[in-house]
Amino acid sequence: MQYWKCSKAGITLPFTDKKEPDCKFVIAESLPHQGRNQVDTFLEQHTAAGIQHVALYTKNIVSAAHTMAKAGVHFFSPPPAYYTEVGKRQEIEEAGHDPQMLSEHGILLDTDLQQDPSSQRECSENRRYLLQVFTKPLFAEDTFFLELIERRGATGFGEGNIRALWRSVQAYMENERRDSQGETVQSAQQ
């Protein structure tokens, strides 16, 4: 088990004969200068702290996301610029992935920030990274979702992807708010 606070490097709880812990907890807190956000929504709708999402490990995230999408699961899409930014595009390609393929499924890639710089090589086999994708909320409360994660040696939780996910969730919440306000206005006019 591992406990991480988003703003800290984390605390590792030792396990015998294992390189990685079986479970990680990430504690998210509302940022006052960000305005209303998904943490505030979660706390408001649940009136207390709780579990926002559960991550499921997969050995092939592209296949898993494709299969789930075909079964009707909806995934968040990061802003399109995520895949076209020069640094991110290069990071994806150096890891041996096609930015267009990841974009089609909303899959994020993050190289391990804890990686030893002396071990980094141009060869994608030696790069430590993770791939992750997040479903849209599963319930009416808009607060619980699933994450698919494929680890290629990375031990973090996608620190570099948090901003992209945050923007994606914020945009979704804003669209939902606008849609519900539009329905309210239409009902009032009838």
From TrEMBL:
Top-level taxonomic group: Eukaryota
InterPro entries reported for this sequence: 4OHPhenylPyrv_dOase, Glyas_Bleomycin-R_OHBP_Dase
Transmembrane segments: none
PANTHER family to which the protein is assigned, alphabetical: 4-HYDROXYPHENYLPYRUVATE DIOXYGENASE, 4-HYDROXYPHENYLPYRUVATE DIOXYGENASE-LIKE PROTEIN
Protein name: 4-hydroxyphenylpyruvate dioxygenase
